[in-house]
Design a protein that fits this description.
Length: 321
Amino acid sequence: MEDKAKQKRIRRIVSTVVIVVIFVALVIIAVIADQFLKGTPFGDFVNNTIGRFFNLLKIVRDNWLTIVESIVIIAFFWLLNRLLEFILVPLSKRKNHQSTIWLLLKSIVKYSTTAIAIFLVLSAWGVDTPVLLVGAGIVGLAISFGAQSLIEDVIAGLFIIFEKQFGIGDVIQVGSTRGRVIDIGIRTTTIEDVYGDILIVNNSDLRMILNTSANLSPAICDAYISYDQNLERVERIIEEAMPILKEKISAIKDGPAYRGVQSLTDKGVLIRIYAKTYELDKYQAVRDMNTELKHIFDKHGVKFGFPTIVVKEEHIKSSEE
């Protein structure tokens, strides 16, 4: 794999070098033909073909004022975009529903300023932008008839954002995938699961969504104790340990509380401890509760349950008896 990646990187570098060399050679040929071969058949041929696009000196000399105007337009909108991002980025990073709206506004500002800058630059170079806008509108209308799914995605995205169905940082479940929302766009929503895998879903495909961040999530600690243990003594030990679990496990936001005997099985008496925490902290809170409960049971000599098999022996009389 490393050799293939290295060969691919080498091929990319070689291709880039070849393209740069060809570009520089064409520029040099165009400049030489314009400066030293003007009036000759070869010079006129080069000036009318390659020179129209690669004679950078002539292009700059004839259009320096337009180039400066274009640079000023680009610089202005770049600075404006950076200023707006400086204001909007801190708001979009807050872990609440309003951050999603600010994130959407940041994207709208970015694309809008870029589009305006492009049209102004084209106008500076003499392009009839009103005609271009009309043509773009007609093309956009034609495309819209064949892009109904795109329109559905955009409308669904707007409803998700403005109805506050979920926001950046929320943990949602889409189908069999549960993860944290890391981005909500006009067309797609991006989710990262517990394994770090990224799921990108079209907004129109988001149906039957389970938002587990709307409320605190349960963290349940189940443990089996042996049938020969005194249940009242074990329950008293657990009740006394609840403040200790609360103190040691900072992820617990509500509880913990002893809920009693969950079931009686061949493994032993199943007892349950119940707490609430944030969805992203749920699994670690359960691990910490299991760890602390093990320490407490070891300290008080409480034996855990385990699967048991009852073997019943019967005495079979032989025929001789």
